[in-house]
Amino acid sequence: MRFTLIAFMAATHLLLVLNLFLLLFLVLNLFPVLNLFLVLNLFLVPTPTLILVLVPILVLVLVRAAKAKERLEAHHHLLQTAKLHHHHHLVQRANLVQYLVQRANLVQYLGQRANLVQYLGQRANLVQYLGQRANLAQYLGQRANLAQYLGQRANLAQYLVQRANLVHYHLVKESEPGNSQGDSIQWSLGAKNDHSNQPFVAFLSRFMHS
User: Which residue ranges does UniProt annotate as crossing the membrane (predicted)?
Assistant: First the structure.
């Protein structure tokens, strides 16, 4: 009886050691073919041995599940961070593009303002030129009026000279001996004692001295 108990315990411990090695191989995936032998062997060992084998397996599965969950959460966190970073980068790019567009519009507006200022300057120069032309035309008109006035004065002077020559001619004719105070004197100057030419002579004197 004793021998039987010792043999049973030895066989149990041997199976336990064998199961531990098979468990190690199962964990390391060194001998996948032995998995079937391990499953069959689990039904041949006593309950304490089964518990000792299943508990480490369960703990290992739970640990691996926890690590897988942590890796999944870390990957999800990295993915969310990457998405946020990419979205932030896209927003910055969009803001930069909008800023560049606004700068381009500002440059175009300033160019249009510069062109407008240049155009207004040209208009001002044109107005000044037209004013100078108007002043020149006015000056030329005044010169023309002055020339016309001088021409009229010249014509008047010529007329007065002709009248003076005519008066002088008649006076000379009158002063000649044997010449009576005939029709020529009366035709030009009137009667000898007529003073109608005195205003003309006075005007001629003033004109010649003016």
Answer: 7-31, 37-63
Other C-beta atoms closer than 10 Å to the C-beta of 50 total 15
Distance CA 43, CA 41 (A): 5
Residue 65: the pLDDT is: 80
pLDDT along the chain (210 residues), means of 10: 60 65 58 51 52 64 81 89 88 93 95 95 95 94 92 90 84 69 45 50 56
